[in-house]
Amino acid sequence: MAGSLAALGQFVLSEQSLHESLQRVAELSVRAVPGCDGAGVTWVVQGKPTTVTAAGDFVRRIDEIQYALDEGPCLHAYVTQDMVLTEDLEDEQRWPRFRAAALQYGLRGIVAAPLTVRGTRLGALNVYALQAWVFDEATAATAALFAEQASIVLGNAEAFTRAQVTAASLEQALTSRWEIDTARGIVMAQQRCGPIQAFDVLRDMSQTQHRKLREIARELLDQVQDEEGQAGETAAER
Fold first, then answer.
1. Angle of helix 137-191 versus helix 2-9 axis, rounded to 10
2. Cα separation, 81 vs 237, whole angstroms
3. What does the buried/exposed string (b/e) look like for 201-219 if buried means 16 or more CB atoms within 10 Å of the residue's CB?
4. What is 172-237's CATH number?
5. Is pTM, for the whole model, over 0.70?
6. Nearest to 114, CA basis, from 105, 124, 128, 106
7. Residues of the chain with CATH 1.10.10.10
8. 84-86: strand order across its sheet
9. Could you tell me the end-to-end alpha-carbon distance of the chain, in angstroms, rounded to an integer?
10. CATH architecture group of domain 2-164
């Protein structure tokens, strides 16, 4: 447990994608919880649960059963924000359809811990055992402590990923703005008009051709570059 928590603390989020961080969490969970045969992270985005990573071949299938039936320990932990402990699935009465299906895959012990950061529900950490009575209250407490630490890591990883996406979107927006402004300058030079009239020309082309303004601008830039390249080749031949 101490080694797993220490490993969590060594995450460098600038070098870890969200998926990589989640995979590490699942792997460390298997090490941290005695008797664990597999672990996974259920991530809920816009109300849709997904197993974004798993350690153990059977974990994804167990999670998929829950999602298909809309019942099970990880969904229960996510919705109620309570720890789930099932010492033996044979005796579990809360999710009868999930119980029947999961037993066919040999699942017996379950611990599901909600992942929450600053009041925001992120998903659930799911720990599974193929033997009964290997999980108890002490196991649940260990998983809860690990989930608390993991939630912080995952929350930071998600924030970092969002920042990356925002930066990429901003860069794309700035590039599009530069292309449009440059294309407007080309139209001004070609048609000897002002900036407003040049922008109207580009906008009319966009509306007439049913294409985005940045596509029209990029095409005009490519056309001018090609013409300049051909002119340069001709001059060189002379």
1. 10
2. 75
3. bbeebbeeeeeebbebbbe
4. 1.10.10.10
5. no
6. 124
7. 172-237
8. 48-55, 38-45, 120-129, 109-117, 84-86
9. 77
10. 2-Layer Sandwich (3.30)
Structure tokens at 125: 């950490």
CB 224, CB 186: distance < 8 Å: yes
Q: Look up residue 101 and give its two tokens.
A: 């299906």
Distance of alpha carbon 160 from alpha carbon 175, whole angstroms: 23
Examine the pLDDT at 238 and tell me if it is beyond 80. Answer: no
| Region of poorest pLDDT, from 67-76, 109-118, 178-187 | 178-187
CA angle at 206 for the pair 202 and 207, rounded to the nearest 5°: 120
State which of 29-33, 58-62, 173-177 shows the largest mean pLDDT: 58-62
Looking at the chain, the domain(s) classified CATH 3.30.450.40 span 2-164
d(CA 175, CA 64): 41
SS3 category, 127: strand
Tell me how far apart the alpha carbons of residues 60 and 65 are, in angstroms, rounded to a whole number. 9
106 burial via Cβ count (<10 Å: 0-12, 13-18, 19+): middle
At how many degrees (to 10) do helices 18-32 and 2-9 cross? 170
Is-contact 103 90, C-beta < 8 A? yes
DSSP state of 45: E
The continuous run of DSSP H or E covering 125 comes out as: strand 120-129
2, 33, 3: which is closest to 131 by C-alpha?
33
Say how far apart CA 125 and CA 146 lie, in whole Å.
9
The amino acid sitting at 88 is D
Give residue 184's identity as a one-letter amino acid code: R
